[in-house]
């Protein structure tokens, strides 16, 4: 019972649920295509797709893209996108792959000074 109450409190505080957060090779009609955590420099882009449910109010969500360089995470991009009130909202961000992008990466969903989800992936 305590877990259910804590979950309900968390939903009201954050104002949404994250139903899905994945990296993929494309997004078509707001649907992730070829979900993976491994990409090559021959792939055109890396997409980070997010699916939110039960959004209580409009918020801005950051997609934080970082590359690991000498054991330190270096910021590549910070993409701020809105999510709007309703039963669901799907959105995505992407980076265009360059030959020098080989290595370990991560993309994070960030909201109001807190990282909500992180995906680690690699470009070979």
Topology of helices and strands:
Elements: H1 2-14, E1 17-28, E2 31-35, E3 38-39, E4 45-55, E5 59-69, E6 72-83, E7 86-96, E8 103-111, E9 114-123
CATH class: Mainly Beta
Proportion of β residues? over 45%
CATH topology: Immunoglobulin-like
Write the H/E string, N to C.
Answer: HEEEEEEEEE
Q: What fraction, in percent, of the residue positions are helical? A: 10-25%
Number of strands: 9
Rg measurement, Å: 16 Å
Q: How are the strands of the largest sheet arranged?
A: 3-9-8-5-6
- Structural class call reads mainly beta
Mean pLDDT: 91
Spans of at least 5 consecutive residues whose pLDDT stays below 50 are: 4-12
Major sheet characteristics: 5 strands, mixed
| Helical stretch tally | 1
CATH superfamily heading: Macroglobulin (MG2) domain
Shape: globular
Distance between the termini: 46 Å
Q: What count of domains describes the coordinates?
A: 1
Corresponding CATH architecture: Sandwich
Report what the structure shows.
- The protein has 124 residues and is mainly β.
- It has a five-stranded mixed sheet, with no helix packed on it. A four-stranded antiparallel sheet has the order 2-1-4-7, with no helix packed on it.
- It has one helix at residues 2-14; strands spanning 17-28, 31-35, 38-39, 45-55, 59-69, 72-83, 86-96, 103-111, 114-123.
- A hairpin with a 2-residue loop joins β5 (59-69) and β6.
- It is 10% helix and 67% strand.
- It has one domain: Sandwich (Immunoglobulin-like).
